[in-house]
Design a protein that fits this description.
Oligomer: single chain
Number of domains: 1
Order of helices and strands: HHHHHEEHHEHHEHHEHEEHHEEEHEHH
Strand content: 15-25%
Number of helices: 17
Strand order of the largest sheet: 4-3-11-7-8-9-10
Number of strands: 11
Distance between the termini: 78 Å
Radius of gyration: 27 Å
Shape: elongated
């Protein structure tokens, strides 16, 4: 027979009043009663600080009561869901549950996350890119690269606008030795990265291949370029990449740019910035042990004859590591970023606008450079649909 919690507590208490009650029984009673009472106290008075869960949390407000929702069987399930999510110590119980799944069963309770060897964390799209599962074919890549080369030449000759492609490193390609064996294909003939990097070089497209560069200095960089529990390049890797970009732009344009000078390098086993962004999404009870990570503290040297330089960045979330560190604001006079060529950002702040609604001709008149930055060459669609819209808009 099932009993409600108050009935259980009352039954136990009745037994405690008997002469046979012992200190052990009283202790057991207090513990059981506390399991029911403490969450209620926490829910109402919040005596213990509860750390919020990371990632998207579906809102569950108190449901609005109506006779229709009651008779249709909607109100009570919504009410139950609301109380389940708002009970005291809910977040701590979720973290404990996730920790058990992670530590004992190797289950990551976060979408797209893969637990690799030695607890290196991956997202499945980067493993798919490493394996070539998202390969779009050589002909499509050749056609896209020809479009990019055409746009690059016209922008530079007719408008003096530099076009630049940055192929960013991804964790699957950088750390394949930590990918679980069951996720690896026995044969990897073609990947988008392999063919994009080859064709971009053959067509003499302005290119910085960070993926190849990071892998080349993987064992000599001094500090990790990717952390165990993050998906982006490490804070140290982000600094090296921006320094490389600045030097490339100076050589290509003949202009002087601001340079970062490292005044201090903090070494920490506690990941900071975005170096544990995947781990945070797992909402674990305690952290994954980290290797020592480097965090450069920089000052900026601005040349006296510096000319303002504006660039429109189009790409993925690696841009935010530069913007959050202050690199974008110190190097460029603007902070325009089109996230996946879809959402328009100013630095890290969404404007609420969409890239497809922007006036491309006016945009070209405001910038000195167009910079694509994407991991795995944009999952096959380098630049997403920007080049298509640019060619369709005319004016090149």
């Amino acid at each position: 027979m099932n009993h409600d919690p108050p009935v259980v507590i009352f039954t136990i208490f009745a037994g405690m009043t008997s002469k046979a009650a012992t200190p052990v029984k009283w202790t057991l009673f207090i513990l059981i009663a506390g399991l029911f009472v403490l969450p209620a106290i926490q829910k109402v008075f919040h005596p213990v600080h509860s750390r919020a869960l990371e990632g998207y949390i579906e809102p569950n407000p108190f449901p609005e009561f109506s006779l229709n929702s009651l008779f249709e069987g909607l109100f009570l399930p919504r009410l139950t869901k609301h109380y389940n999510r708002s009970v005291g110590f809910h977040n701590e119980l979720v973290r404990l549950h996730n920790q058990v799944d992670f530590s004992l069963f190797r289950i990551p309770n976060a979408r797209s996350v893969v637990i690799g060897k030695e607890d290196y964390l991956f997202e499945d799209q980067y493993i798919n890119a490493f394996n070539g599962r998202d390969f779009i074919g050589v002909k499509k890549i050749e056609a896209r690269v020809r479009q990019i080369r055409f746009a690059q030449d016209r922008l530079w000759k007719e408008k003096g606008i530099l076009f630049l492609v940055l192929i960013l490193p991804d964790k699957g390609t950088f750390y394949p030795e930590y990918i679980p064996q069951r996720f690896k294909l026995s044969v990897r003939e073609n990947t988008n990265y392999k063919w994009y990097s080859r064709k971009l070089k053959e067509e003499h497209v302005n290119l910085i291949d960070y993926s190849a560069w990071f892998r080349a200095m993987k064992d000599t960089s001094g500090y990790p370029l990717f952390s165990k529990s993050g998906i982006h390049w490490s804070s140290y890797g982000s600094y090296l990449a921006m320094d490389s970009l600045v030097r490339y732009l100076e050589e290509k344009t003949g202009r002087a740019f601001s340079h970062a000078r490292v005044t201090q390098t903090i070494i920490s086993r506690n990941p900071m910035d975005r170096d544990d962004d995947v781990e945070r999404a797992l909402n674990l009870a305690w952290g994954i042990p980290s290797q020592p990570l480097a965090y450069p503290k920089v000052t900026w040297k601005k040349p006296g004859n510096q000319l303002p330089f504006s660039a429109l960045f189009i790409g993925d979330s690696f841009y935010f590591t530069w913007a959050e560190a202050g690199y974008i604001g110190n190097v460029f006079r603007n902070r325009d970023f089109w996230y996946f060529d879809h959402d328009v950002y100013y630095g890290t702040y969404p404007t609420g606008e969409r890239a497809v609604s922007q006036d491309l001709k006016r945009m070209l008149s405001q910038h000195d450079a167009i910079i694509f930055l994407q991991t795995s060459a944009g999952y096959g669609q380098l630049g997403y649909f920007f080049i298509d819209r640019l060619l369709a808009a005319g004016g090149l």
